Amino acid sequence: MPDLSTTYLGLKLKNPLVPSSTPLSRQIDPILHLEDAGAAAIVMHSLFEEDVRNDERMIERFLITPDAFGESAGHLPGRHDYVSKLDTYLEQITQLKARLEIPVVASLNGSSLNGWVELGQEMQAAGADALELNAWYMPGDPEIPGDALEERYLGLLQELKEQVSIPVSMKLSPFFSSLPNFVRRAEQAGAAGISLFNRFFQPDIDLATLKVVDRVQLSTSADTLLTMRWIAILRGRSKLSLAASGGVHTADDALKMLLAGADVVHMASALLIGGPPALMEVLDGITRWMEKGEYASVAQLKGSMSQQNLPDPSAFARAAYLNALDSFTPPAGVMY
Amino acid sequence: MKHMLTIDGNEAVAHVAFRISEVIAIYPITPSSGMGELSDEWAAQGKANIWGSVPKVVELQSEGGAAGTVHGALQAGALATTFTASQGLLLMIPNMYKIAGELTPTVFHVAARALATHALSIFGDHSDVMSTRATGFALLASNSVQEAHDMAAIATAATLAGRIPVLHFFDGFRTSHEVAKIQTVDDAVLHKMLPQERIVELRGRALSPEHPVLRGTSQNPDVFFQAREAQNPWFDAFPDIVQEAMDEFGKLTGRPYKLFDYVGAPDAERVIILMGSGAETVQEAVAHMNRRGEKVGLLKVRLFRPWAPAALLAALPATTRQIAVLDRCKEPGAAGEPLYKDVLVALAEDAGNETPRFAAMPRVIGGRYGLGSKEFNPAMVLAVFAALTEPAPKRRFTVGIADDVTGLSLPFDAGFRSDVTAETFAAVFYGLGSDGTVSANKNSIKIIGDETELYAQGYFVYDSKKSGAMTVSHLRFGPQPIRSAYLTGDGDAKFIACHQPHFVETHDLLAHAAPGAVFLLNTHLSPERVFATLPLAMQRRMIEKQIRFYVIDAYQVAQEADMGRRINTVMQTCFFAISGILPQEDAIAAIKHAVEKTYGRKGRRIAELNYRAIDKTLACLNQVVLPAETTSTATPAAAIAGQPLTDFVRKLTLPMIAGHGDSLPVSLFPVDGTWPTGTAKYEKRNLALQIPVLETDLCTQCGKCVFVCPHSAIRAKAFPAELADNAPATFKHMAPRSKDYPASWNISYQVAPEDCTGCTLCVEVCPIRDKSNVSRKALNMAEQPPLRAQEAENWAFFLKLPDYDRRIVKRGTVPGAMLLPPLFEFSGACVGCGETPYIRLATQLFGDRMLVANATGCSSIYGGNLPTTPYTTNAEGRGPAWNNSLFEDNAEFGLGMRLATDQLADAARTQLKALALEVGDDVVNALLHADQSTEAGIHEQRERVAALQAKLGHLATPAAASLSAIAENLVRRSVWIIGGDGWAYDIGFGGLDHVLSSGADVNILVLDTEVYSNTGGQNSKATPRGAVAKFAASGQNNRKKDLARIAMDYENVFVAKVAYGAKDTHTLKAFIDAESYPGVSIIIAYSPCIAHGVDMSHNHSQQDLAVKSGHWPLLRYDPRRREQGANPLSVDSAAPSVPFREFAKNEARFTVLERQHPEAAARFMDQAESDARLRHQEYVELAGLLLPETLIAEQAAAAAENKGEPNA
Q1: How far out from the chain centre does Cα A142 lie?
Q2: Which residues contact B180 (CB under 8 A, 6 or more apart)?
Q3: Which of A251, B114, B338, B641 is 20 to 30 A off residue B30, Cα-Cα?
């Protein structure tokens, strides 16, 4: 049996499979099942800045200072024993810590600098082993240059680091002009790890109503390639923990990420589709592959195919359109 | 140690009642609802009574039910109570006789309120309490918040000791809603007041199968009378028992009370006797007069029943020569009001004694004051004392009004002020019901009450509107307990704040200001510019009174602090910063502390925003340097210029709108409660910041905007194009897109800019978007102020255009029906109200021949609360005739209207036939056999009736006159019974059920908001599973009652369930079908409400989700289909296509529970999901059933067919 253990954000994990932030982790039971299935740590669902705000506004508007008329001072019971979404989240951290043996990574999602990263402190106090900072600002304003946005993310990270002593990982989008440079600056700003890449809900147009709607689009294995390339490029260039996220559905997908240099592999869509058994299957597949290839440990294979370790580092660097296109054959029946 | 609380009267009572009760049966009614709400909330939180158990709090279907439940709980041995007022108390009377007849200890706590007579009034007087005099309940009065708190304990102690049930009452609003700083009664005192042995006695008398007895017998003439007299000793003993309880309470708390408390000069010659909050005001005036050596006094009546004349006489100074007894009620036709007569009897009987208390019987006069919360202030008290000095004062008088009909009223000097005015810091705040002004002020009172030695008082006056409701907060602070149970007088306030800049235009904000007072204005104008923009009168007052004028742009500060439009904290900070009532630093620290307490952990980030707003406020608050002279040239806007006004509107409606109703004399008023309709249009409230603007190039004239408008503020007309030749330049009109209109005609969609509330629903529903830019619709919101004048002119022009001919309008289509003029407009309903579009639709379709019976509730308040009414008339002067009987009897009330109409129509037909010779057979036949199923048919019948009336006029015989008086009933009338779910599902259900079974041609419209909306969101049987509501603070457990299914059970009832925001054509068709059905029709209309905890701009999307999730299936059950061999039921919405959660997640009524009990909330959601699916499935199955007759026919046919077959 090969040694599957790995280290992520300074945490010793029994294997590299870490379910990432999904709606599955909104409840305790599915998380317990994931642990049973072999998950090495858990990233909780994100606490969305917007969600916390809307929740507070709802409480303010309907319960604390509601519209008042001569015959009514409000329209919902004036109870004050309700719990905010934030407190529900914190309570869940505490409960998970009490019931799980694996580490718990709390996840914060937001972009404003209005002091909300102070919530990180509360997450730490509630027992989180690490934090994932899920920062994303839609860069739609032509007045804001790219480096200003990067500064904003780093500022956020620094602010959060001032609040907490537990390790912080940053989950990034693929949209950076120079990702390695940003990763380096994140390291300097105090990050303990990087998670690649954030998967966004992309808005869609509903042709019937001409309204923009949110659609959930689950990943496929094909989505792993972008992540894998960047993991391979970053491995060895940064001391940060690397988490590979996006498209891992099979053991093969996970192995490729590890070979490229990931410390942990996140799974989300596969778990939403197949539940905890999907994780077990991937873990079994990794083990079998390693046994077959006579690998002794994950540590041994981790990054063995990073860009630096490749005989031809340019394989990950070039935009290999030509070969790929040359090998493309049109499907039968399609006329070009 | 004294424990002080700053709370209102309802909370003060509930604070005691909850702790000493085991069963609490409740039902909402203003102004007592707060007591039930708090009890329910405390029970839901698991708070215990003084014996360690959590009281069972249960809501009933009516006050009658609550009283019955209390009666049962008492019989089974529990300490039980209830809270009520007004009509609710009347519904309890039958049980009160029973409870008292069985000598059962209980206390009913009553926020005394006027009874509905010529009009409903939610305000305070004693007419409800006085109606219970004969029940056998003791009647115990509290005069203030402190007393209401104390007396709740004393009443309970006395009833346990003396077995006479007690009705403990205090003045509705004036005491129930006044916030005051009081000393609380702690548990130890309550334990001592309610000793264990009394409770054991109560248990011993309980019904028990272990030692069974029987009560509630039926007694015959032989014994009933004696048995009734047998309990006399208990009533005789009770006053002393109450006094003992008062004495014990006094010992324990240092607050002694007497059955009759006298205050004033020991050698008083003139004494006023009264009970209730007015006594506090009299006490203040008496103290003032005593200080000036006047020999006057006040006798406060605390125990009114059982009447204790000896105690009354003993309490009066022997020197008393003249007495004025004041009653806060009216007993028309009586020799005098109840308290007056009782006092008179006591004195007269005493005078006949051998050793009378008085050498000469004092002269007694009796007066009425304060009906329906009419102001009662020290000036009026002085007027009463002055009357007593007259040689021949009026024996019956009124005070507080100008009675120029019967001349009963006493004149008073409005300028009089008692000494305490100068010693008290009074402040007045003008705000909106939605801007948090009242909660900020309650907060300020708490801060000052809790953090300083000062006493504090707050009283809040709301106008009768729901959208843009104005609130005026009257706050007082002072070193002594505050007895001033009246509003701040003119020139008395040391601080005035106006939280909404537009009030400067509409209200005389500085009337209350004392010389040198501080005036704080929320405005976006700079300190340099603001003065010049003020109306001339205001500028003048400011200079005359040397007002210290401060401004702040509160909206800007709130926005910068990321608090949106919440200005309450900003304005509160200003108050503390410049009122000087607390040192500024202490005040700011106290506000921050209060913010922390308010938001706690759950809102700690909102608290942060508040702190930021507080700090920003101080930097943005500016004093304005007053010029020496006025500068304004602006004349006050004449909002209704150019409109023809009736005398009535000019003399009554307009002064009432302007807030001068108090000064209107009796002679101006209708004697029978009859008011003209069509007056809402005079208000011009200008609430909208933005109004919709039409893009004629895009508009397809679909009519949806008109259909959804809750305030009838956007309308459509089709007219010959040439009529627009002289239109204002900006008037928008366009060629019709439909071939239904001649090509030479035009169509216009016009907004009433000053009546629109800016709810955005018309823009939201508008389906047409610019092909190149989807954000540009055929309707778009734009700033109102720049458009106001221009669009007002366009609106005036639009109104003058003729209405489309009803005879040819395609009323079965939305664009067609929306050409019909709404006869319900500009109501005071909430912005985005989900109910009013249904009412407006009914008036468009049938309003010109509509009789409306309206249950009490939101629809009667926005429909009939003065000063104005939204019901109006068409160009011919026809329109809905409307009345509100009660909450509980509306279906029966409407049935009565139908019966009368049918009866008079029958009589008219009979008399018509009898006059055939005179009027002609052809006329008679045409009138009797008219087809009135279409608008054209109705039009023709109207013309026939008009012709008949002309003939009858010529005849001038008694028979002709008789027929003439009822001939109008020959035109088909449409009777509508309208109300909310509280009425239809709960309190009025018995009557509704009966009317459903009656077969009468009535149309019932249930505006289902799924809670009691008007009284503040209490649970009804329409409340869906999983929603929290007041009285269901832990979430509604049960599936929503299916009223449609119940109604369908009658087979001959037309039933529809509609949601206009989901399918407007379905709603339209349902209304037309319901009205055309010649029997009972019921339309159950889904009506989103602010009580759902949702922004009403999402009204339509929530309706849509309610239907798509299966929460609100659309259906019609038309018994006429049976005649065609079809199943009467058609399910008009598809099977649930979105999860119930999707619908529920947008509404706080569902999501709040997740924050309290996530497991229960999740369970409820699952159940609600299956409820929705199951209900839809059930309906589909019902709709798919073959009718029995069809089934029999099919079986017969099959059998016949089989007969011919060889193997059959």
Answers
A1: 28
A2: B6, B7, B8, B9, B12, B144, B145, B146, B455, B456, B457, B458, B482
A3: B338
Identify all chain A residues contacting B605, using CB atoms and an 8 Å cutoff. Answer: 52-53, 56, 86, 115-116
B532 pLDDT band, cuts 50/70/90, is very high
Residues with Cβ within 8 Å of residue B1203, at least 6 apart in sequence: none
Pick the closest to residue B510 from B499, B500, B518, B502 (CA basis).
B518
pLDDT tens for residues B1105-1125?
Answer: 999 999 999 999 999 999 888
CB contact under 8 A, B606 and A56: yes
> pLDDT tens-digit profile of B1010-1049?
999 999 999 999 999 999 999 998 899 999 999 999 999 9
Q: Are A120 and A145 in contact (CB under 8 A)?
A: no
Contacts of B608 in chain A (CB under 8 A): 115
A71–B1016 C-beta distance less than 8 A: yes
Amino acid at A162: E
The Cα A244–Cα A221 span in angstroms is 13
Tell me if chain B has a CB within 8 Å of the CB of A68.
yes
CB-based contacts of B956: which residues, under 8 Å, 6+ apart? none
Compute the distance between CA of residue B420 and CA of residue B628 in angstroms, rounded to an integer. Answer: 32
- Is A83 in Cβ contact with B602 (below 8 Å)? yes
| DSSP string across A154-202 | HHHHHHHHHH--S-EEEEE-S--TTHHHHHHHHHHTT--EEEE---PPP
Answer whether B611's CB lies under 8 Å from B562's CB.
Answer: no
Task: Give the span between the Cα atoms of B579 and B587, in whole angstroms.
Answer: 10
Position B858, amino acid: C
With an 8 Å Cβ cutoff, is A84 touching chain B?
A: yes
* Chain A residues within an 8 Å CB radius of B598: 64
Average pLDDT over residues B436-454: 90
pLDDT at residue number B1208:
39
Q: A87 CB near a chain B CB, below 8 Å? A: yes
Contacts of B469 in chain A (CB under 8 A): 68-70
Query: Residues A235, A263: contact at Cβ < 8 Å?
Result: no
Residue from A50, A69, A82, A216 to probe the interface with B (highest B Cβ count within 10 Å):
A69
From the candidates B560, B765, B1155, which should be mutated to test the interface with A, based on the most A CB atoms within 10 A?
Answer: B1155
* Better-scored residue on pLDDT, B780 or A66: B780
Task: Give CA–CA dist B1004/B312, Å, rounded.
Answer: 54
- Cβ-Cβ contacts under 8 Å, A65 against chain B: 436, 439, 566, 568
Query: Which 8-state DSSP code applies to residue B114?
Result: P
Q: How far apart are the first and last CA of chain B?
A: 98
pLDDT confidence bin for B641, thresholds 50/70/90: low
Residues of chain A with pLDDT under 50: 320, 322, 324
A-interface mutation test, from B444, B566, B572, B605, most A Cβ less than 10 A away: B605
pTM: 0.93
CA distances from B1165 to A62, B484, B497, B679, B1168 (A): 21, 51, 46, 45, 5
Nearest to A68 among B40, B438, B1032 (CB): B438
Q: Which residue has the tokens 């922390």?
A: B596
- So which residues of B are the catalytic ones? 30, 63, 113, 1014
Give me the pLDDT at residue B1200, please.
75
User: What residues of A are in contact with residue B1015 (Cβ under 8 Å)?
Assistant: 71-72
For residue B584, the distance in angstroms to the closest alpha carbon of chain A comes to 25
Say which of A64, A76, A210 has its CB closest to residue B1028.
Answer: A76
State the pLDDT at residue A209.
79
